Amino acid sequence: MSTESTNPDLSFSSRVDWLAGYLRADRIRLDTLVQLVASWSDPDARDDIITALDELAEVVSRPRAAEGALDAAAEAVEDAAGMDTAQVPIDKTHALRLHAELSTVVQHLTRFGPNRRSVSMPRQRGEMGGAA
Fold this sequence. Notes:
Helix content: 40-55%
Radius of gyration: 20 Å
Largest sheet: 2 strands, antiparallel
Oligomer: single chain
Shape: flat
Number of strands: 2
Distance between the termini: 32 Å
Order of helices and strands: EEHHHH
Strand order of the largest sheet: 1-2
Structural class: mainly alpha
Mean pLDDT: 85
């Protein structure tokens, strides 16, 4: 049973067994691909991108890559393609929704054990005792 979201493309949800949660941010993947393709159209950048992608493929195909090698190879692709920071802007409405979704995931993850915590939820308009 995963948490339902009004915006699944940018959401938090719980795994079915409640032992882990998920953050879904499809916009980051879309922006990454668009930035890669935009840079790819520049013939000078394309050669650098291909070289960096080949190096990344080599690291991924190794059974035991050196620690940090995957991150370094991915950063080389990002640098060659001139990619921006992977971030998604959110407004107040999305922030409140994401907070509520994450709070549900945290409640699932912390439901047992000595370190159980109570998660405070933001007050919504119209709730008893809340400011309108």
